[in-house]
Fold this sequence. Notes:
The chain is α/β, with parallel strands linked by helices and 145 residues long. The chain is built from six helices and five strands, in the order βαβαβαβαβαα. It has helices at residues 13-25, 43-55, 71-76, 90-98, 114-126, 133-143; strands at residues 3-8, 29-32, 61-66, 84-86, 104-108. The structure holds D-ribose.
Amino acid sequence: MATIAAGCDHGGFSLKTVLIEHLVASGHEVLDLGTHSNERVDYPDFAETVAKSVASGEVEFGLLVCGSGIGVCMAANKVSGIRAATIHDVTSAHLSREHNDANVICLGERLIGPEVAKEALDIFLASEFQEGRHLKRVKKINEIL
Ligand code: RB5
């Protein structure tokens, strides 16, 4: 079981709510860092908070949801140590972990349905970084300032 910080903007609030329920029912520990309603907010604020929670080691993984999954991903990747990936399906979910050691999963509520999102999230959390030939490439990502 994993510890996960979850965040979203108004465009991702409904899906984040569904996914937190799903994660808790599966036995994961979730830190809900907002937003907590459909009221308009700015996604970089929540992406930064979640990304810093992961980068500090407070939690193992981050979950970010906005309308497209793109804005939160761009913002989260500004934080050192974060490898955030926008995920649309189970294939990108496991590849982002196995090849890229992704530590934040970003989803777009306006682009994927809740069942695909739940399955992709489950696969993301269950997949492991394969190291090997991928290790030096991820190290090179980490070295970019
Ligand atoms: C909000 O309208 C929307 O721009 C946001 O949720 C996200 O899709 C940005 O990338």
